[in-house]
Design goal:
mainly alpha, Cytochrome Bc1 Complex, Chain D, domain 2, two-stranded antiparallel sheet, 2 strands, about 5% strand, binds heme C, Cyt_c-like_dom, Cytochrome c
């Protein structure tokens, strides 16, 4: 009995740590990195710093860290016309829509990667969330 209690306590503490990272976060980030490198890196740069006046940074912006639906919509539908303003800068490249080139899984993964890279820390975007928004925006 004496040995069982410490083992139980260790198990509870270990589970609490494991729960801070939702299941699959690490794997989603790893898959998302591959999507980022193939699809976003050319414009937003390897470190997410963007290109002044052309492509905005992805470092702690309100779109990256904020409402997941608004963020996912940017990937599905793209943006143009300098709608984004960050620290007084506007960006004059168009952001291409990717609803026909990326799957729900790829969008969920790449957004989970971006929300957990470049100094960002935010919750995962799930496949179900992307799927629901894609259906709604049709
Ligand atoms: C052809 C260049 C290009 C590519 C490729 C591209 N973007 Fe963008 N992105 C832009 C531009 C330009 C804007 C701002 C558009 C505007 O202001 O109208 C933007 C805006 C954004 C924003 C909102 C503003 C911000 O910086 O927080 C996010 C988030 C974003 N892009 C993420 C991505 C992700 C993720 C990918 C890959 C799946 C990607 N982009 C691919 C050029 C690009």
């Amino acid at each position: 009995m004496k040995k069982v209690i410490p083992a139980t306590i260790i198990f509870i503490i270990a589970s609490a740590f494991a729960m801070q990272q939702p299941a699959g976060l690490k794997a989603a980030i790893a898959r998302g990195k591959t999507v980022y490198e193939a699809t976003c890196l050319a414009c937003h740069q390897p470190d997410g710093s963007g290109v002044p006046n052309m492509n905005p940074p992805l470092v702690k912006t309100k779109w990256v860290l904020g409402d997941k639906k608004a963020l996912t919509k940017i990937i599905l539908k793209g943006l143009q016309g300098g709608e984004i303003e960050i620290d007084g800068d506007k960006f004059h490249n168009p952001m291409p829509p990717m609803e026909s080139t990326l799957t729900d899984q790829e969008i969920a993964d790449v957004l989970t990667y971006v929300r957990n890279s470049f100094g960002n820390k935010a919750s995962m975007v799930t496949v179900a969330e992307v799927k629901a928004l894609r259906a709604k925006l049709k």
